[in-house]
Design a protein that fits this description.
This protein is an alpha/beta fold and 435 residues long. The chain has a 5-stranded parallel β-sheet with strand order 3-2-1-4-5. It has a 5-stranded parallel β-sheet with strand order 8-7-6-9-10, with helices on both faces. It is globular, with a radius of gyration of 22 Å. The N and C termini lie far apart (47 Å).
C-alpha cells in the first residue's frame, strides 16, 4: 500500500518520511522541499472569482478531488506487481469531515470502479479553507453569476461544444467549466468566443507538481472535472438562494459507455470517465452530502454522429467542429492522430452526418494505418468489434463495462446507442476501404 498524506502547510510535512508515503501540500504555491508534492494552487484564486466564500461542503469536495488527482498522478502504476492496480490510502484533512463520513465507503467504491485501483480514504479535521472575505473583496475580475442558470463542463472537445450549443439553443445560460491545461486553453478560448451567446466561465488547472516520477494514465481525471462543476453549480445556487442547479456533463452515449472492444480492454482498461454507473454514484454522494447540484448527461442516448448531424447544415459549426479536440495524444505535437479509438469515433460521426471532416489528422488513410504494425492496434480493435457485433448480445456486451440503470427504458436506450455507434464505425470503415 502507498499512503498519500495531505497537508495544508508545508511546515506540517515531517522531515523524516516513510518511503511508502507521498506527502502533498494542497492549494500550495511555490517551491516544495525535495520529495514533497503540491497541487491546486490555482483553485484558491479561481473560487474567489465567485465574489463570495464557497460553501464548506463544496470546497471540501474540491479538496477531495484534488487529493484523488494527486494520488493518481504521484503513484506510478509501473511500481505495482501487475503494473496496473495500485493500493492507495489517502489521508485528507477537510474543513468539516462530518457530512462525508457516511459516504466515504461509497466514494471509495466509485473510485475503485473508475480507475481499477483499491482506494481507502481517511478523513481528518483542520482542512484547508478558501480565501477570506478581505481577499475576495479586492478581486476586480469576477464571474457574473447573474448570467448563469446552470453549469456545463466545457473541455473544448466536440461533445462539450455541442452540449454548450444545445443549452444556449434551449434558452439556458450555462456557466462553462473548464479544466485548462495550457494547450487546452487555446482551443477552449477559441471555441468559447464563437458561441452564439456570451457565457461566463470558471476555469483552473490542478497543476500537480513534484520532483518524483508521475503516472500519465489519469483514470480519475473526470472526478476532478466534476468537482469543478459541482463547485460552479453550488456557487450559482448560493447566488440564486439555494436552488438545486443542473450540472451538465455532455458526452455521447457510445463513449460514455465505452464497452471493451476486445477482451484485452476489459474492465478499467477501458476508461469509465462518464459511465452512467459512475455518474449515478457521484450524484448519490453529492445528494447525500447536501450539495445543490444535479448531474445530467444530456447526450447519453445520442451517438456522436447524431450530435453532428443536428448541426450539419450550419457552416459555422462545420468550421468550429474541426477545431475541437477528441484525440488523447494530440498534446505531443498539437495534431490529432486520426487512428486512436476517440479519433475513429469522431471521424465516423462526421461521415454518418454527411459532413466533410476538415480536421487535420496525422494519419488520414486508414489502409496505411492498418499496414503500420506500430500504430494499428486501435484500428484493429475497432475492426474486430464491428465484426463481432454481427449477431452479438449487445446488452451483455454493454454490461461488461459496468452496471446499467435499473429503469428498463434507460437500459434499452443505452444498448441502442452502443449498437448505433458500432453501425457508424462500420459505415466509416467500409467507406475507407476496410472490411
Amino acid at each position: 500500500m502507498t499512503r498519500v498524506v495531505f497537508h495544508t502547510d508545508v511546515e506540517d510535512v515531517p522531515d523524516l518520511r516513510d518511503d511508502r508515503e507521498v506527502h502533498v501540500v494542497i492549494y500550495a504555491a511555490g517551491r516544495m522541499p525535495e520529495g514533497v508534492a503540491r497541487i491546486g494552487y490555482q483553485l484558491l484564486d479561481a473560487t474567489s472569482r465567485f465574489g463570495f466564500g464557497l460553501r464548506t461542503d463544496a470546497f471540501d469536495f474540491l479538496t477531495l478531488a484534488l487529493a484523488v488527482t494527486a494520488a493518481d498522478t504521484f503513484v506510478p502504476r509501473g511500481s505495482t506487481h501487475d503494473r496496473w492496480c495500485r493500493n492507495l490510502e489517502l489521508q485528507v484533512p477537510l474543513i468539516d469531515p462530518t457530512p462525508w463520513a457516511p459516504v466515504v465507503h461509497r466514494l471509495e467504491a466509485a473510485l475503485n470502479f473508475l480507475s481499477g485501483d483499491r482506494w481507502t480514504v481517511v478523513l481528518g479535521p483542520d482542512g484547508p479553507r478558501p480565501l477570506g472575505h478581505n481577499v475576495i473583496a479586492r478581486r476586480r475580475r469576477r464571474i457574473d453569476l447573474s448570467r448563469a442558470d446552470c453549469a456545463c463542463l466545457f473541455s473544448g472537445g466536440l461533445d462539450s461544444y455541442v452540449g454548450a450549443l444545445d443549452l444556449i439553443g434551449q434558452g439556458h445560460r450555462p456557466l462553462l467549466v473548464s479544466h485548462s491545461y495550457p494547450k487546452d486553453s487555446q482551443y477552449q478560448n477559441r471555441l468559447m468566443r464563437r458561441l452564439p451567446a456570451a457565457c461566463e466561465r470558471f476555469t483552473a488547472n490542478a497543476h500537480p507538481t513534484w520532483s518524483g516520477a508521475s503516472d500519465v494514465s489519469m483514470r480519475t481525471r473526470s472526478f476532478n472535472f466534476m468537482a469543478y462543476g459541482v463547485a460552479a453549480a453550488t456557487a450559482i445556487s448560493q447566488w440564486r438562494g439555494g436552488d438545486v442547479i443542473d450540472l451538465y456533463i455532455p458526452e455521447n452515449g457510445h463513449i460514455a459507455l465505452n464497452p471493451p472492444l476486445t477482451p484485452r480492454r476489459f474492465g478499467s482498461h477501458s476508461t469509465r470517465t462518464t459511465h452512467p454507473h459512475f455518474l449515478s454514484e457521484i450524484q448519490a454522494i453529492v445528494q447525500a452530502v447536501g450539495l445543490p447540484a444535479r448531474l445530467v448527461n444530456p447526450l447519453r442516448h445520442q451517438t456522436k454522429g447524431t450530435m453532428v448531424r443536428r448541426y450539419a447544415a450550419d457552416e459555422t459549426f462545420s468550421e468550429l467542429a474541426a477545431q475541437t479536440v477528441s484525440c488523447g495524444k494530440w498534446k505531443r505535437d498539437g495534431v490529432q492522430c486520426g487512428r486512436c479509438v476517440p479519433c475513429l469515433i469522431r471521424r465516423a460521426s462526421f461521415f454518418a452526418a454527411g459532413l466533410e471532416d476538415a480536421t487535420p489528422y496525422r494519419s488520414e488513410e486508414l489502409r496505411e494505418v492498418l499496414a503500420d504494425m506500430r500504430h494499428r492496434d486501435d484500428l484493429v480493435s475497432v475492426m474486430r468489434a464491428v465484426a463481432r457485433s454481427n449477431g452479438a448480445d449487445m446488452e451483455a456486451w454493454v454490461l461488461q463495462a459496468g452496471p446499467l440503470p435499473p429503469d428498463p427504458q434507460e437500459r434499452a436506450a443505452y444498448v441502442d446507442v452502443f449498437r448505433h455507434g458500432i453501425d457508424e464505425l462500420r459505415g466509416f470503415l467500409r467507406a475507407s476501404g476496410l472490411p
